[in-house]
Amino acid sequence: MPDPPANLHQPLLTSIAQRQVVTLEYRAGYHGTPTRRDVEPIGIYFGQYWHVVAFCRLRQEFRDFRLDRIAGLHLREEHFEPRPDTLQTYWAQEAQRHQTHAAVVRFGPEALPHVEENKHHFGWAHEQALPDGWREVTFLAHNLDYLARWLLLFAGQATIVSPPELREQVRELVNQAHTYFG
User: Fold this and answer.
1) What is the mean pLDDT of the chain?
2) Secondary structure, 3-state, the chain
3) 74-85, pLDDT tens digit by residue?
4) What pTM does this model have?
5) Strand partners, 6
6) Rounded distance, CA 11 to CA 22, Å?
7) Alpha-carbon torsion 171, 172, 173, 178, what sign?
8) N or C: which end of the chain has fewer CB within 10 A?
């Protein structure tokens, strides 16, 4: 996929501040053909990638567009009226749509550098150092199976505190591996 146009941030910030419609050439996937989207941007944020949240006139709803998938951007002369939905409303709707599961895991000192590198991919929420050198980490995971598979990397250096379903999922994955490889 070709690199996205340089400096997408400034025109997007301008469009947000001035409520200007933006035409995007957007690839929904890595190899997808770009589609033309007229959007009304309301905010940009960083979360592993840069994103713009905008009302998509094609889909008639707020959508999240990754900046690295924008093949072209044109700031139009047309201005849009503010909608009653805000970025805060968008986040609240996304949170409801993507139910999270709280999980607490204790990691040993040997695991900590690897946990630090990847914890944000698994819904890291907060952590607390323990007196014995271990660290207790709380995740708000969208998918417990995804978290369970990652935790297998830390055999002997991770203890699942909660929920019991996560412990059971890891146990089942270990049993499957033992059956397959044993």
Assistant:
1) 89
2) CCCCCCCCHHHHHHHHHHCEEEEEEECCCCCCCCEEEEEEEEEEEEECEEEEEEEECCCCEEEEEEHHHEEEEEEEEEECCCCCCCHHHHHHHHHHHCCCEEEEEEECCCCHHHHHHHHHHHCEEEEEECCCCCEEEEEEECCHHHHHHHHHHHCCCEEEEECHHHHHHHHHHHHHHHHHHC
3) 999 999 998 877
4) 0.53
5) none
6) 9
7) positive
8) C
Q: Which residue bears the tokens 């002369």?
A: 77
Place of tokens 């990397």: 153
Residue positions counted in the chain: 182
Residue 171 near residue 147, CB atoms below 8 Å:
no
- Taking 80 as the threshold, does the pLDDT of residue 62 lie above it? yes
Q: Is 165 exposed, middle or buried (0-12, 13-18, 19+ CB in 10 A)?
A: middle
Identify whether 34 is preceded by a cis peptide bond (ω within 30 of 0): no
